[in-house]
Amino acid sequence: MVEIKLVGKEGKKKYRKYKCRVCGWVYDPLKGDPSQNIPPKTPFEELPEDWICPICRGKVGKESFEPLDEYVEF
What we know:
The chain has no helices and three strands. By secondary structure, the protein is an all-beta fold. It has a three-stranded antiparallel beta sheet, with no helix packed on it. Strand 1 (14-20) and strand 2 (26-27) form a beta hairpin. The protein starts with 13 loop residues before the first strand and ends with a strand. GO terms for molecular function: electron transfer activity; iron ion binding.
């Protein structure tokens, strides 16, 4: 078994972007979600359970997002 560490430059961690399967909006943890008071540098896994897609608004939540092979570092 191979262990993959997601650590970038200078010990920064890599965080995955997530995409809404309904509308295609991408959650970028480096930017957060200002429309719902989610500060920058908030990993997707740390979003509140009641967080919803800011485009679909109330129609879909975290369960409708899929991980992308795109990362940001911080």
